[in-house]
Amino acid sequence: MKKLLLSLAASMAVGAVWAYPDKPVNIVVPFAAGGPTDKVARDLAESLRKTLGATLVIENVGGAGGTLGATKVAKAAPDGYTLLLHHISMATSPALYRNLQYKTLDDFEYLGMINEVPMTLIGKPGLPANNYAELSKWLEANKGKINLANAGLGAASHLCGLLFQSAIKIDMTTVPYKGTGPAMTDLLGGQVDIMCDQTTNTTSQIESGKVKAYAVTTPKRLSTPALAKLPTLDESGLKGFNVSIWHGLYAPKNTPKPVVEKINAALKAALKDPEFIKRQEALGAVIITDKRVEGAEHKKFVEAEINKWGPVIKAAGQYAD
């Protein structure tokens, strides 16, 4: 009788896996609604729905630099109905937060990467430097007087700023804001000098000529019309400089393999969806088409990012409890 019950239970479990999804799937976004990561999630949900055939619900769980939302998913039932869409903070939080409530490489199933968003180095309108060579001289001549804006601890602009200071070996006064909006407002008003932020936040300001644009942070120049003439930091002399804000999809550890495979297949289909590609390109994002769309390669990439950012963050001594 016991063997029969175990067999029935196993059959029911297998049936549940193959029926997946038979109810709405929650995608947790660990930031407030309306931001770049939220936009990626909502666009992706539309495309995933076409393949999975289920309703996908975006749940915004902001706070603590994205770690509250990530913690919620790490502790969720491993059934495929609670997923996490997160950005580069997935790799930087282990160094930024000393009391992290999850283990980045151990507590999730890696489902695949989605996109990469380039970044731009920009300056206030009145900055005397008109290109990166002139900016480099200006930075050297104004050591101890430079204000570098960012959107808060762990934000893309914070991370890019840390790596930039490390690369040029010049310390600046970091000015954190509660979001990109107020940081950009003060940059436009001349209260701060420079900022490094995502193309999703800077392209319109560059295109309108409201800020000075100096370089992009990717190894290759961008094809976006407004940014095509901007040199890369690598070609400008900072060899190997490469920062982009990437997004990936995750499930709680021990989510059944068939469910993981089904979600990964749906993700791959979404990344080829013309509508999704069009929406992402409008944001300046580049869709992932290489081997990082596979869970194992996605995880290898995140581990490499942890190793890349850890020393930079620790050297800066900027932590959160």
Layout of helices and strands, plus pairs?
Elements: H1 2-19, E1 25-29, H2 36-52, E2 56-60, H3 67-74, E3 82-86, H4 89-96, E4 108-123, H5 132-141, E5 147-150, H6 156-168, E6 173-176, H7 180-189, E7 194-198, H8 199-207, E8 212-216, E9 244-252, H9 257-270, H10 274-282, E10 286-287, H11 295-316
Parallel strand pairs: 1-2, 1-3, 5-6, 5-7
Antiparallel strand pairs: 3-9, 4-7, 4-8, 4-9, 4-10
Helix pairs in contact: 2-9, 2-10, 4-11, 6-11
Features:
BUG, 10 strands, Bug_dom1, ten-stranded mixed β-sheet, Tripartite-type tricarboxylate transporter receptor subunit TctC, 2 domains, 19% strand, alpha/beta, D-Maltodextrin-Binding Protein, domain 2, 43% helix, globular, 321 residues
Report the principal-axis shape.
Answer: globular
The main pleated sheet reads as: 10 strands, mixed
Decide which structural class fits the backbone.
alpha/beta
Separation, N- and C-terminal Cα atoms:
53 Å
For this structure, the CATH topology of the largest domain is D-Maltodextrin-Binding Protein, domain 2
Determine the mean pLDDT: 91
CATH superfamily of the largest domain: Bordetella uptake gene, domain 1
Figure out the total of helices.
11
Regions with pLDDT < 50 over 5+ consecutive residues? 4-16
Number of domains as seen in the coordinates: 2
- Alpha-carbon Rg, integer: 21 Å
- Series of H and E elements: HEHEHEHEHEHEHEHEEHHEH
Helix content: 40-55%
CATH architectural group of the largest domain: 3-Layer(aba) Sandwich
Main CATH class of the largest domain: Alpha Beta
Number of strands: 10
What proportion strand? 15-25%
Protein name: Tripartite-type tricarboxylate transporter receptor subunit TctC
Organism: Roseateles asaccharophilus
Pfam families: TctC
Signal peptide: 1-19
